[in-house]
């Protein structure tokens, strides 16, 4: 799966700049109403398809792009791949109507930082955008399970043995953090539940990546599920 090509250069305390990409004008309008105003998010542009999105993103320089998957001319997965390959790439939060969309893994491989249903409650959508802008992933509750299910098809016994062997490289505390990540918790949630600072959580996650040869939190979740530790 792809990893971000750079870190956000957003000015601290400035609103998160968002571009909305969806072929349904009513969806764009609705999201604009939800996210607009004087809050922590500023909608700086919108596009009706992936090709139009390229120019809008070039002009608006957003921090986060809300990306529909199914659009004419160029879909959201291909557009995510194009945008994430650019210098100064925005982070991508993919939106879908379907909670069992077959494109979840493809979107994450293309470089998306998260995946939300369009029916997500407004407050949760705002939280997810802010999390993605800060470099954390964001997923609807059903999505982590779906991603793991799609990625863990095959011989469960072999997978469990291999996963347990690899997880032996972790300390007890790192294993606790890995299990928390597999539950879909944010860094802040892990911090609160395991009584450690967010900085310590991030350090543990970095060590988990290094020890297990992984690149992102979804891969940690797959490894933990393979080991049947949840």
Automatic annotation (TrEMBL):
InterPro entries: CheY-like_superfamily, NreC/VraR/RcsB-like_REC, Sig_transdc_resp-reg_C-effctor, Sig_transdc_resp-reg_receiver, Tscrpt_reg_LuxR_C, WalR-like
UniProt domain HTH luxR-type: residue ranges: 163-228
Pfam families tied to this protein: GerE, Response_reg
Signal peptide from the UniProt entry: none
Membrane-crossing segments per the record: none
SMART domains: HTH_LUXR (SM00421), REC (SM00448)
GO molecular function annotation: DNA binding
Superkingdom of this protein's organism: Bacteria
UniProt entry tagged with the keyword Transcription regulation: yes
Keywords in alphabetical order: DNA-binding, Phosphoprotein, Transcription, Transcription regulation
Record domain Response regulatory: where: 17-133
UniProt-recorded name of the protein: DNA-binding response regulator
Organism: Mobilicoccus caccae
Lineage: Bacteria, Bacillati, Actinomycetota, Actinomycetes, Micrococcales
